Amino acid sequence: MGVIYIACDHAGFQLKETIKETLNSAGHSVVDCGTSSCASCDYPLFAHDLCRRMRQADDALGILVCGTGIGMSMVANRHPHIRAALCNTELHAKLSREHNNANVLCLGARMTGVELAKAIVQAFLSAKFLGDRHARRVDEFNQLEES
Ligand code: RB5
Description:
Blueprint: E1 4-8, H1 13-25, E2 30-32, H2 43-53, E3 61-66, H3 70-76, E4 84-86, H4 90-98, E5 104-108, H5 114-126, H6 133-139
Parallel strand pairs: 1-2, 1-3, 3-5, 4-5
Helix pairs in contact: 1-5, 2-3, 4-5
Bound molecules: D-ribose.
């Protein structure tokens, strides 16, 4: 598996640290894009930074954590190469990979407990894109003109 980029805002800091430790312990290569404390900060800046870094590697995955996961997912999905999925269950995470080829997982630290968040991350990392008809649909994501 490629590099896993991870970033958060102040609301996601503790959960980001926990996930990072878990991933490091499991032998993953993790790049921490901040934030580095619970001090108040602006989540768009961290989401943009992570997404820019993900341009470098096709097989990279990202994890973004804020209070709800909503703001992070909104910002990340402005980047054409990003398919960010806000996941509240393991099934969301599995299907976001299998059907949507999600490359960024967004989590809400104020919404999702630590153990569930770890299970969601595991489900996200374990699942594989199914391709076929799903590939055609994913290819249509950036087709913004009417056809
Ligand atoms: C920060 O208070 C909060 O707005 C942020 O973490 C996130 O939930 C935004 O979507």
